[in-house]
Amino acid sequence: MQHLGTLPADASPLLREDYARRAGIAAGYREAAGITDPSTAISLTGHKSFPELETMRRDAIRAVEIADDEALIRAASHGELEARVTRGEQSQAVAPAPAHHLRAVTLVSILSGQRAELEAVQAEYDRWSTETAEVRESASQAKAELERRQTHKVCEPEVISEPEPEISEPEPGASLEADMDEPEAAELEL
User: Fold this and answer.
1) % residues pLDDT > 70 (the chain)
2) Closest to 142 (Cα-Cα) out of 150, 154, 2, 34
3) What's the CA gap between 21 and 4, in Å, rounded?
4) What angle separates helix 13-33 from helix 51-63, to the nearest 10 degrees?
5) What is the pLDDT of residue 11?
6) 12 or 102: whose pLDDT is higher?
7) Per-residue confidence (pLDDT) for residue 41, from 0 to 100
8) Is there a contact between 84 and 73 (Cβ–Cβ < 8 Å)?
9) Cβ contact 22:63 at 8 Å
10) Model confidence over 38-70: pLDDT tens digits?
11) Which residues contact residue 56 at a Cβ distance below 8 angstroms, ignoring those fewer than 6 apart?
């Protein structure tokens, strides 16, 4: 893994032991999480349903010294970033409309029961917002990283090929003798 780096050949026994310990922690997590892609260091998303796996993930993050969420985003594979963006777009697509008019409801509306309806709508929006906040934030970070990668992509030199010279075909009925006479005519003019 690129985050762990390589161990120098002249490393002390203590450094070798520390390196092996940290590599073991990361390898154990990757195996438990089923991560086989060598370009993916650690899963970007937590394992809420599996607390033991989430603990292993956190230990692996510390072991390979990934400093923060931004470093974790940068360590993700292109496919994982795209998957995050897709999950965020899907959560946005099913978002209920927020009750923007809740604060503007007048006393008449309160008395007519409209406030109770708007509060129910707002409660549904708040529930959705809370449940999808992490997914939407993660999608935003992944999208920003994909855009950063796109703008910093190394451009390969463009190969410009010269057009091949056009060879004119002799006109039907033209003789080879006429073509041969042309150089002789040029010599006569000299």
Assistant:
1) 69
2) 150
3) 11
4) 150
5) 85
6) 12
7) 74
8) no
9) yes
10) 777 777 777 888 889 989 988 888 888 776 667
11) 25, 28, 29, 32, 33
| Cα–Cα distance, 72 to 44 (Å, whole number) | 7
Nearest to 44 by CA among 14, 73, 9: 73
Among all chains, which residue has been given the structure tokens 């940068």?
A: 74
Q: Computed over its alpha carbons, how large is the radius of gyration of the chain?
A: 34
**Cα–Cα distance for residue pair 16/11, rounded to 1 Å:** 6
Phi–psi pair at 57, nearest 5 degrees: -60, -50
Burial-class residue 185 by CB neighbours within 10 Å (0-12, 13-18, 19+): exposed
Q: Are 62 and 29 in contact (CB under 8 A)?
A: no
Type of residue at 87:
R
Torsion angle (degrees, nearest 10) of CA 26, 29, 35, 39: -20
Which pTM value belongs to this model? 0.40
Among 92, 68, 74, 190, CA closest to 142: 74
Tell me the two tokens of residue 165. Answer: 């010279």
Closest CA to 136 of 178, 91, 174: 91
For the stretch 130-171, pLDDT in tens is: 999 988 988 888 898 888 888 877 555 555 556 666 666 666
